[in-house]
């Protein structure tokens, strides 16, 4: 069963934690709960990313993809909880490919992305992973700045990677060096 983390309450966290923020893996959920979270993630994904970049959040991610992890962050509000972020990565031996990290619009620039990335780093270090690799659109300056701030290094720049006029930057975080 995958770990769950209550940020700011002595759990795994980044810079001091965020009270009320819980980060979990959909694989720790029962089917119906996982499908409900995936549906919520899918709605955010479709609002946030262009159609050609939207990730397909289907039941297969919960059921059939053992190397793929879907993490989500929620914040409790009364009797319900708000989805505030999610991330998808794939482990391939000592490397994790971070395919997606998204913080919902009203929760951006509050440290949520850094908390989720810190959680991912700690989890992957415990699993013996050596590197995290990702691609970021050069135009997504806040995301690019966050990755640089936490230690990712630029390794490659490819013009038109995402679409004509949209440059992709490959970034890598060495978990052994930065641990």
TrEMBL record:
<dbReference type="InterPro" id="IPR000182">
    <property type="entry name" value="GNAT_dom"/>
</dbReference>
<feature type="domain" description="N-acetyltransferase">
    <location>
        <begin position="24"/>
        <end position="176"/>
    </location>
</feature>
<dbReference type="InterPro" id="IPR016181">
    <property type="entry name" value="Acyl_CoA_acyltransferase"/>
</dbReference>
<protein>
    <recommendedName>
        <fullName>N-acetyltransferase domain-containing protein</fullName>
    </recommendedName>
</protein>
<dbReference type="Pfam" id="PF00583">
    <property type="entry name" value="Acetyltransf_1"/>
</dbReference>
<dbReference type="GO" id="GO:0016747">
    <property type="term" value="F:acyltransferase activity, transferring groups other than amino-acyl groups"/>
</dbReference>
């Amino acid at each position: 069963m995958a770990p769950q983390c209550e940020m700011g309450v002595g759990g795994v966290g980044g810079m001091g934690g965020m009270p009320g923020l819980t980060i979990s893996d959909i694989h720790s959920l029962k089917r119906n709960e996982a499908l409900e979270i995936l549906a919520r993630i899918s709605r955010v994904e479709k609002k946030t990313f262009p159609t050609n970049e939207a990730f397909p959040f289907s039941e297969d991610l919960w059921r059939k993809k053992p190397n793929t992890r879907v993490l989500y962050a929620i914040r409790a509000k009364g009797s319900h909880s708000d989805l505030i972020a999610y991330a998808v990565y794939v482990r391939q031996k000592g490397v994790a490919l971070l395919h997606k990290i998204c913080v919902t619009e009203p929760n951006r620039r509050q440290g949520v992305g850094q908390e989720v990335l810190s959680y991912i780093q700690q989890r992957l270090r415990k699993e013996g992973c050596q590197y995290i690799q990702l691609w970021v659109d050069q135009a997504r300056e806040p995301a690019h700045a966050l990755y640089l701030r936490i230690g990712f290094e630029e390794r490659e720049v490819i013009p038109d990677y995402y679409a004509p006029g949209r440059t992709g930057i490959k970034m890598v975080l060495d978990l052994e060096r930065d641990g």
